[in-house]
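Hey, resending since the last one bounced:
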Amino acid sequence: MNKYTTIFFSSLFFLLGVILGLTGRDGAWRNTAEAELMNANAVEQMYRQLATPSTFSEGGNQLSRISALTTPSVVHIQSESEGASGGLVEETGSGVIMSSPQAKTPFVVTNRHVVAGAETYDIRIQLSDGRTINPYEVRADDKSDVAILLIDEPNVQPARWGDSDTVQIGHMVLAQGSPFGLSQSVTFGIISAKGRRSLRLGESSDVINQDFLQTDAAINPGNSGGPLIDLSGRIIGINTAIASNSGGNEGIGFSIPSNLVRYVTEQLVVNGTVKRAYLGVKLDPDFDDESARKLGLDRVRGARVVDVYKDTPASRSGLMIDDVILYFGGVEVLDENHLINLVSLTSVNTSVKTIVLRNGKRQTLPVVLGDRSVLDQRAETPKANEWRGR
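The structure tokens again:
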């Protein structure tokens, strides 16, 4: 093969290589384009599926409908009062407009600590439509941290109460209010726990009616007094406090159950104050497994009596030291604070069937509850830090 023949075949093979290379590159480009086209079709299909009503989208629509229904009832509250040292104390919170057959006008339910010490003219209520009004009267209950602000304003929309006793752990809820002053904010979460008691709320230990709902719906400063709402759009709690190391939301918030709030507000509407019953016993705050076994129980349950005060419903009914109160009015007593709550929210002069464990045996005692306000006037009333039963 001469050199010209070699050059010819070399050139031919080079040209064929170039052609084959270009053909292969074109095929690879087409494969890439087809892959991109397939992805685009899949994305478009996904968008079409999401646009079709589904469980998830309908759930979002339900939350939107709830918010639209309850937002006109939720208010932003600002109050000013004189502090202990003489300075001005400003408080920001939330509230919800409610009504009652016993009340002549609607009223705003909120936390007492939001308006504590403030005169009516120093309490500003901002409605959802931008109107700012003042209440004409404030009625508050320090033992539950609940207050009502009586208003006389046309064209307001009261919310509706729900039944907090039917709320279960895991139920989804909305929290509304004005966190950090951002009015008409809505957050979403679940009921994390029920029956949270023995909480220390701020610097005050006055709150004895503790039976909180715990939620992970974001609650921040400014949410106090705002409503916790179920998926039927009804109020099942009033947001009150958070457990936080930073001062902001960390997923643990507490709400007063609606049934407790409703009881208190009805009392405030009718009487101006809350009449509470009492037993007249001192309960064991350190009731433990060892003490329970000595008294014939398999575990800690109920509330152990460590003292019975003379001339009280407890002494008249025959309650004795070391009795363990297991049931009160048909409700199983979980601990001392649960009993305190049950007693104080029972009507005065009511006869309540009480089951106790005495010397290893159950006994039933009818107890006619007394009026705590009468007890408070007695000189021999135990001091607050000694009084663990009502």
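The mean pLDDT is 82.

Sorry for the duplicate.
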